[in-house]
Amino acid sequence: MKKLALFLLAGAIAASLAGCTGQDAEEPEAFDAKPVIYLYPETQTDVTVTLDYAGALTTTYPAYQNGWEVTAYPDGTLINRADGKEYSYLFWEGESTAEYDLSEGWCVPGDETAEFLQETLAEIGLTPREYNEFIVYWLPRMEDNPYNLITFQREAYTASAKLTVTPAPDSLLRVFMAWTPLDAPVEIDPPEIEPFAREGFTVVEWGGAMVR
Question: For the chain, which residues score pLDDT lower than 50?
Answer without folding.
Answer: 1-32
